[in-house]
Amino acid sequence: MAITYNKETKTFHVTAKDTSYVMQIINDGYLAHLYWGKKINEYNQSNQIQYRDRGFSPNPVSNDRTFSLDTLPQEYPAYGNTDFRTPAYQVQLENGSTITDLRYESHTIVKGKPVLFGLPAAYVESEEEAETLELLLVDDVIGLKVKLLYTAYADLDVITRSAHLINEGDSNLKILKAASMNVDFRDHQYEMITLYGAHERERFVNRTGLRYGVQSIESRRGTSSHQQNPFFALVREDTRENHGDAYGINLVYSGNFQASVEVDQFDCTRLTMGVNSFDFTWLLEPGESFQTPEVVMVYSSTGLGDMSRTFHKLYRTRLCRGEFRDQTRPILINNWEATYFDFNEDKITDIARKGKDLGIELFVLDDGWFGKRDDDNTSLGDWFVDKNKLPNGLESLVDKVRDMDMQFGLWFEPEMVSENSELFREHPDWCIHVPDRKKSTGRNQLILDFSRKEVCDEIINRISAILSSAPITYVKWDMNRHMTEAGSATLPAERQREVAHRFVLGVYRVMDEITSKFPHILFESCSGGGGRFDPGMLYYMPQTWTSDNTDAISRLKIQYGTSLVYPISSMGAHVSDVPNHQVKRITSLEMRGHVAMSGNLGYELDLTKMTEQEQHDVIDQVNYYKEIRPLIQFGEFYRLLSPFKGNETAWMFVSEDKTEAVFAHFKVLDEGNSPFLSTKLQGLDPDKKYTIAELGASYYGDELMNVGVNIPKVQGDFTSVMWRLKAE
Ligand code: DGJ
């Protein structure tokens, strides 16, 4: 890895592991984008920017009709002085104008990676792991400075980017848009992959060809959302799991985001991503600055599989933090689908005890333990134990569970308040709202105004009090509605459109304080399942509840789509009851186990109601998972067959040294007289011989990967196999 600057050609060459990213300062300081892709030795202008007089592409330099920003590939473009495409940023002056003109002023290249104050970001553990280029662009007329940060990782094909806007002028500036990145490709032969969805149907894979004009994804919901994940990839038409170019871009942010891909009149493609500019402005007074969230950019010349494994490795090792980052995660039993709000101390201890008997390690008490929460209409914000349900208090319950040699975890929804709560009655203006307007509710609750420091402080105190009151080792941090009437009681009028972003900054501050105060607690984020499955959350909490949909068949798509970006160790996956509570499907315990064992295994059903046989099966699953757990959670993940393409799904987990692997194959519907099934494995060492215990046979890796392996016929819908491979 190195970041170099060639003074003669004024060219920056940023190299990550096997990636090059090249920029050039041209004509009086415009910053042009030259290349992003497979690593090259040197950029020697073989593909230099071409200039031509083009109709309706005006010229910033009047005597040069061949130069227009409208045709120039750029790094951080503006709108309004000859470029008509999507801008990376837009700033309004006090005189109402939105014309700005940033030019290169200076740069520095430093070892390591700077911390982004108040925002989650990937990090380094030693300065040798990465290098950072800081490019300073200036608009002299208004005193606007923009620092563009580029960090390249030595051992990963990762470049991170962000922008820092500083008002060094004498007048107020209003940021209308500040993207984290912009890249202009010089062709349009790409397809775009996005992860769309809904509650209980998150991160479905969508792949489409690009069309002329702008195509975009965004969230306007106050969170990163179930509906669109803050991720997109551009790939070539022939890109597959293990072949072809893949450019993956993921915003490290948990709020409103926007990503756009614009194919212009000359077949060039502009990619821009950052905080959503819709319903957003940010007042920048003289001396103030604004830091955009970070964007992670991964390039793979060998397909989507390697792109995903790069994201996984970065997130597992240099985004997630804390003592649980490298620890295998406990197998848990959660009472939500077992009891919903209807439980008492005996019921909880019965489930926990049964869990212990079956080898489960952690009991999680979900929603309903506080205030007067007998349904979801009340008590959020009142983080005090409900003595009607737990008459001996939380401490006594935790002690009982811990006496069984089980860990204890607890559910919170810290960002919310119910109108029917002590907290709301005390502080009716502490929610996000707009004066004189009705407050729309979602799940009958309001969002606390985390743009206000005193609100954050009170919640930090309330949650901390509970967490200090008993030896709790796990927290599920939920968030169950999206933002409406985004306004704050204390911000001045000209800052009201900052609320959604200030809320996210407040959430990050609260999460930072609580997770730092309780480093021995494993935190799992959640937002009605996977509504906030984003890298911003993973920075504070190393795992996320993947979806409220626990049906094994639905989960094939959800977990497959999630794996495009997010590591297996971040995905909570539970075996639940049948008929499944979300889709009413009945699948075997074996298949539910295989799907849940493909993530962080947990159970979410009333264990006390299981038959003897089912309990034995759970014991077998738990024991099996304990053996394969490090491989599942920290191995390398290979997608073999996509649930979006057919009736079968297959994937595998391979240890870094390739001595061990787990293979899983799932069939959805059976057919009469069905075709023979066989699958080619991936990621193995071709020269190692692997024993597959379940088949009682051994094969070289090259045979398994090139010839493939037969999948035995099992009659019936919803069947699966999970095999363990061990090198001899
Ligand atoms: C939504 C979560 O995703 C569920 O798992 C559960 O915790 C409920 N909230 C509780 O209200």
Automatic annotation (TrEMBL):
PANTHER family: ALPHA-GALACTOSIDASE C-RELATED, GLYCOSIDASE FAMILY 31
Recorded catalytic activity of this chain's protein: Hydrolysis of terminal, non-reducing alpha-D-galactose residues in alpha-D-galactosides, including galactose oligosaccharides, galactomannans and galactolipids
Keyword annotations from UniProtKB, A to Z: Glycosidase, Hydrolase
PROSITE patterns according to UniProt: ALPHA_GALACTOSIDASE
InterPro entries: Aldolase_TIM (IPR013785), Alpga-gal_N_sf (IPR038417), Alpha-glycosidase_related (IPR050985), GH (IPR017853), Glyco_hydro_27/36_CS (IPR000111), Glyco_hydro_36 (IPR002252), Glyco_hydro_36_C (IPR031705), Glyco_hydro_36_N (IPR031704)
Protein name: Alpha-galactosidase
Pfam families: Glyco_hydro_36C, Glyco_hydro_36N, Melibiase
Enzyme's top EC category: hydrolase
Entry's EC annotation: 3.2.1.22
Family stated for the protein in its record: Belongs to the glycosyl hydrolase 36 family.
Native source organism of the sequence: Halalkalibacter kiskunsagensis
Top-level taxon in the UniProt lineage: Bacteria
Keyword Hydrolase attached: yes
Start and end residues of each Glycosyl hydrolase family 36 N-terminal domain: 29-285
CDD domains listed in its UniProt record: GH36
Domain annotation Glycosyl hydrolase family 36 C-terminal: ranges: 648-725
Record has Hydrolase as a keyword: yes
